[in-house]
Write a structure and sequence with these properties.
With 114 residues, this protein is mainly beta. It contains one helix and seven strands. It has one domain. Helix content is 12%, strand content 47%. The strands form two sheets. A five-stranded antiparallel sheet has the order 1-4-7-6-5, covered by helices on one side. This is Phage tail protein.
Amino acid sequence: MAIFVWVPTYGSALTVQPEVHVIPPDQFGSDAERRIQIGTQHIRRVWSLTFENRANETADQIEAFLTARGGLETFDWVPPHGVVGKWVCREWGSSPTSPTTRSVSATFEEVFEV
């Protein structure tokens, strides 16, 4: 299993996305909706990460790692103040910040494999 080793910049943001199916209230003859979790591990974390002002060589390494996985292959990563998990990155980009540096942004989505 590949391991993502680069540390993101402070200010990277965590979003929690519980996977829940909502059954509308009219199906039960009441005003209450019902919610059912999808799967046994239904709390999924999504990190919006930035790696600011990294040397072009480091930015190249980050982008090469993500490109090699192609949005398909999972990898191990330890989020800030977290425990190792399985992640996939389906979107990333970069922008130059000087002739010798650039910033990389990426979205890591937690996955649960069976």
